[in-house]
Amino acid sequence: MKILLINGPNLNMLGNRDSGFYGSKSLNEIQEIIEEKAKYLSVDLINFQSNHEGEIVEFIQKNSSLASGIIINAGALTHYGISLRDSLSDSKLPFVEVHLSNIYSREEFRRISLLAPIALGVIAGLKFKGYEYAFDYLTNYLDQKDLQ
Ligand code: DQA
Hints:
This protein is 39% helix and 18% strand. The protein has a single domain, classed as Rossmann fold, CATH 3.40.50.9100. With 148 residues, the protein is α/β, with parallel strands linked by helices. The chain is built from 6 helices and 5 strands, in the order βααβαβααββα. 1,3,4-trihydroxy-5-OXO-cyclohexanecarboxylic acid is lined by residues 10, 73, 75-76, 78, 99-101, 103, 110. The site of 1,3,4-trihydroxy-5-OXO-cyclohexanecarboxylic acid has 10 residues, from loops.
């Protein structure tokens, strides 16, 4: 099983961003935690981060045919990235949308997600734990362990 773990704009700066919203772990630390879980389950995890929507679109286009699912924190692209949404939709892969912060308790513009309507599910506000829960859910879902 291959899972793509995608992080969008500014998430490379985790650790230096507002810890009240995002926690204090760096993106590397979060990726290592998920990599550990993936190793344990013999899941092939591909990490990708970019600050550019087009690069994320290209990554999805190139990698989706060999992948089973996606975990994505699209950062601000969540709220306006139509080409990102289209590429996720075109991939036909199940994906879980993750946000470190609770986007529903912040500014109005963060409450709109273009991705949520086509996501398998959304996890927001649980800091780095959201990535772990997304991984657990998606791997279970893909194994068809009583969740489908
Ligand atoms: C975020 C929430 C977005 O609104 C914001 O632009 C981010 C991070 C989150 O993880 O809480 O960069 O996706």
